[in-house]
């Protein structure tokens, strides 16, 4: 286990932000900590990356205690925080070379490493421009590159794509995917279910400082129910007549029917409705999304 | 060591690129010298050597601005995510502050150089020997170092960059309550008590005496103030920085 926490607790004043968090992360995996603002995601990352001390419980990263052996932990991790931690008035190249020097690279290898990362993150053209002139996506890429200078075993990404446009987000996702293939363990937080779905092997839903659910994206989706058919009608009357024929739940002009997702079932439903002379305007199959999981989990927990 | 040097390089590069800081460091001493020597100088002192009198005070006044800039750049780092990145890396915890302090000393050196240069153009004729110059600059270095660590500490605890700049306001005010611009003997008795018991007066008196080849009677006092302030400010700033993790 590359990350192991036991009963991790953190309070700020009278507010308990983490209420006994137990987590285990296997080396080489991607864990997404998913939750709304204030769920305790960032606090968890700050404790694991030695920035904040827990009030109770313990946490080990690569076998090192995050409080007593903070220096050893810092040697094997990298953190990309919520806000791009880059110097606006330095160029991209200077930012990278600075981190390399701080990571004890010799001067010449520091510059070689900077160039290597500029190439990898498609920043060569902007290498000698001040970061102030970079777009949001370029900044995030540079930020990520700075975290990879020393080839960490474990990378913390705190909301890596918050505030990015869709294209930049996809680019970031691709870059993160490449890291996973290189064998870097990734511990990320996100409020975007799509992001967790796309990147993570395992998702831990955090709600009010507690684990509300833990599993693969599919397992979480299955936990809230199977596939359903959504049928849309031209009138409320059609919708209720259809309900009398095939069952399901009416919501306005829409009827939702539980399904096994097979073509045969779809055929049967449509044939039955045709026989009953109810015309259907549109049909869609709906597999539960993490949104459904999230809504149901947080609704129960609240 | 490499980390501290790298951080110092970073801070110096960042201050060179910050136009406000450059103007502050070079233009301000020039303007203030002109103001004091040509505008107030005639009224304050009838003698032509007011420029000789006022140079040490000018240097110290500029260190006040310098301290303010330092506190602000530290506060800026603390506010942005940058400090989190540094703190999550295996580098000594005070390398970040050492970098800022080194840059602060460098900025003050530039400002001091500007003051002396302008003063020479305005008729400043110091009679000091090389040894006295070295002693005077050494004392100023110690004082600036102490003030820079104090500023670093203020930068760490300041909640915003704006509140960090308050230090500058305070440090700008102190020289006026010292022998920087007028002899202490011209002040009312109660104010004299204040001005004789703050660090700036002995520092200025000593530098002035050294540059004008007079006996530096307050030398030890200046040394004690600056050295004491350095120890306290260094301890305070590094303690504050190490405590961030408890937040």
From TrEMBL, chain A:
UniProt keyword list: Antibiotic resistance, ATP-binding, Cell membrane, Membrane, Nucleotide-binding, Translocase, Transport
Keyword RNA-binding among record annotations: no
SUPFAM superfamilies attached to this UniProt entry: P-loop containing nucleoside triphosphate hydrolases
InterPro entries hit by this protein: AAA+_ATPase (IPR003593), ABC_transporter-like_ATP-bd (IPR003439), ABC_transporter-like_CS (IPR017871), ABC_transporter_ATP-binding (IPR050763), DrrA (IPR005894), P-loop_NTPase (IPR027417)
Bilayer topology term: Peripheral membrane protein
Pfam families (alphabetical): ABC_tran
Protein's UniProt keywords contain Cell inner membrane: no
Domain ABC transporter intervals: 3-233
Superkingdom of source: Bacteria
GO cellular component: plasma membrane
One GO BP: daunorubicin transport
Entry GO MF terms: ATP binding; ATP hydrolysis activity
Coiled coil: none
Subcellular location: Cell membrane
UniProt record similarity statement: Belongs to the ABC transporter superfamily. Drug exporter-1 (DrugE1) (TC 3.A.1.105) family.
Protein name: ATP-binding cassette domain-containing protein
UniProtKB/TrEMBL annotation, chain B:
Transmembrane regions listed in the UniProt entry: 21-41, 53-74, 94-124, 130-152, 164-184, 220-241
Main location class: membrane
Localization per record: Cell membrane; Membrane
Superkingdom of the organism of origin: Bacteria
One Pfam family matching this protein: ABC2_membrane
A Gene Ontology biological process term: response to antibiotic
Membrane topology listed for this record: Multi-pass membrane protein
Keyword Transcription regulation listed: no
PROSITE patterns found in the cross-reference section: ABC_TM2 (PS51012)
Domain ABC transmembrane type-2: 20-244
A Gene Ontology term for the protein's cellular component: ATP-binding cassette (ABC) transporter complex
Family designation: Belongs to the ABC-2 integral membrane protein family.
Official protein name in the record: Transport permease protein
Organism: Lentzea alba
């Amino acid at each position: 286990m590359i990350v192991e926490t036991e009963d991790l607790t953190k309070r700020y004043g009278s507010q308990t932000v983490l209420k006994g968090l137990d987590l285990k992360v296997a080396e080489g995996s991607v864990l997404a900590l998913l939750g709304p603002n204030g769920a305790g995601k960032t606090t968890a990352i700050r404790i694991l990356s030695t920035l904040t001390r827990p009030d109770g419980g313990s946490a080990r990263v690569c076998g090192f205690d995050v409080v007593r052996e903070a220096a050893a932990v810092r040697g094997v991790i990298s953190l990309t925080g919520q806000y791009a931690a880059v110097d606006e008035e330095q160029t991209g190249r200077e930012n990278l070379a600075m981190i390399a020097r701080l990571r004890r690279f010799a001067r010449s290898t520091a510059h070689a490493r900077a160039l290597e990362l500029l190439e990898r993150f498609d920043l060569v053209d902007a290498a000698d421009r001040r970061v102030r002139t970079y777009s949001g996506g370029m900044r995030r890429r540079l930020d990520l590159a700075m975290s990879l200078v020393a080839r960490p075993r474990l990378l913390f990404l705190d909301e890596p794509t918050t505030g990015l446009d869709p294209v930049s987000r996809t680019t970031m996702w691709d870059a993160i995917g490449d890291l996973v293939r290189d064998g870097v363990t990734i511990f990320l937080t996100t409020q975007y279910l799509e992001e967790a779905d796309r990147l993570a092997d395992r998702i831990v839903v955090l709600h009010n400082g507690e684990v509300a659910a833990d599993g693969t994206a599919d397992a979480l989706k299955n936990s809230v129910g199977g596939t359903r058919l959504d049928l849309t009608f031209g009138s409320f009357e059609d919708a209720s007549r259809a309900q009398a024929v095939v069952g399901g739940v009416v919501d306005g002009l829409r009827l939702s029917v539980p399904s096994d997702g097979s073509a045969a079932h779809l055929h049967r439903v449509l044939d039955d409705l045709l026989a009953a002379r109810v015309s259907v305007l549109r049909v869609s199959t709906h597999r539960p999304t993490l949104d459904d999981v999230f809504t149901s989990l947080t609704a129960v927990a609240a | 060591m490499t980390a501290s040097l790298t951080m110092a390089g970073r801070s110096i590069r960042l201050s060179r690129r910050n136009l406000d800081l450059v103007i502050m460091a070079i233009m301000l001493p020039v303007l203030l010298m002109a103001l004091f020597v040509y505008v107030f100088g005639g009224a304050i002192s009838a003698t032509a050597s007011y420029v000789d009198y006022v140079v040490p005070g000018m240097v110290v006044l500029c260190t006040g601005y310098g301290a303010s800039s330092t506190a602000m750049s530290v506060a800026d780092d603390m506010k942005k995510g940058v400090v989190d990145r540094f703190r999550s890396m295996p580098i000594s915890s005070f390398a970040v502050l050492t970098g800022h302090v080194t840059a602060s000393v460098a900025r003050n050196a530039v400002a001091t150089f500007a003051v002396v240069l302008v003063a020479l153009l305005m008729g400043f004729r110091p009679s000091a020997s090389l040894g006295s110059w070295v002693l005077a600059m050494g004392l100023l270095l110690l004082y600036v170092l102490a003030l820079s660590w104090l500023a670093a500490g203020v930068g760490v605890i300041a909640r915003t960059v704006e509140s960090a700049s308050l230090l500058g306001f305070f440090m700008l005010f102190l020289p006026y309550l010292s022998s920087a611009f007028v002899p202490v003997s011209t002040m009312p008795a109660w104010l004299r008590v204040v001005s004789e018991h703050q660090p700036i007066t002995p520092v200025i008196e000593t530098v002035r005496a050294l540059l004008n080849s007079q006996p530096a009677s307050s030398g030890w006092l200046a040394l004690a103030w600056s050295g004491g302030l350095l120890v306290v400010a260094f301890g305070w700033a590094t303690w504050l920085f190490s405590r961030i993790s408890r937040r």
